[in-house]
Prior knowledge:
Number of helices: 9
CATH superfamily: Divalent-metal-dependent TIM barrel enzymes
Amino acid sequence: MWLGAHIGIADGLAEAPGTGRRIGCDAIQIFSKSPQMWDGPPIAPEAAAGFRAAVVETGLKATAVHHGYLVNLASPKKAMLGRSRTTFVDEIRRAEMLGADGLIFHPGAHLESGREEGIRVLVESLNKAFEATAGVRVRVLLENSAGQGTSIGGTFLDLADVLRRLDDRTRAGVTIDTCHLFASGVDFRTPELYGAAVDRLDRELGLGEVRAFHLNDAKADLGSHLDRHENIGRGLIGVDGFRPLVNDPRWANVPGYLETPLTDDDYAAYATDLATLRGLVAGPGTGPRPRRRPARAVRSANT
Length: 303
């Protein structure tokens, strides 16, 4: 797995890759604008070029943009939905300018309109976005949810249901957040439980759909449906809960981004978490093997 973290852009887009490398990242995730705003200032062409050049210069293996928190592509409210769709198209274009491999987004919430209606609206939103951004290469990645409230994406079947209805499956994939997965009720804290969880993932969604991970420990218990991130080894997943994941050869070319809590000392907590995860990595060929043959070949996170 390519280990990385979410890096801020306050010092400029072109500085983020170097910052990530200095704390030990092989991959970085960023926001392209404030996540609390509908609209952000346009990305200057020279800023986008600077970011792309810095990614190459630093040798990062993958990059992702995370969308803003206001967007709800499954909303039954017309005004909210319209604004979300407009903003999402802009997010795709911004990520494309930056040369990002993926645009990670939350599938949204149906707000009591019902799961089926929420997924229908979400799929319609994505199809419209793809039509408006024909020709771009960045892949949008649905992030699994903790299953809280009326959120969509709390199960592998939810995510698979969205993907199978899309007009163009090549434009989308999935990001698996470990905290969300644990909070949704999937236990993977032992090699046996991990193997069963990955088998279920393969059966219900398909391993090849997974294009990125968010690597977060969990403050809340298994099945709590609470999205509460914790630093690696300080939560209820625990250090050993990440060992099979980071050693699994099926994720060798897939990025895993930290979104763990930070303190006032810049990215020291990220550096510690990255070191902890790397300390779990065994030598080549010693990682866990599939419990059964995957239903489909795993594709690279960058294809």
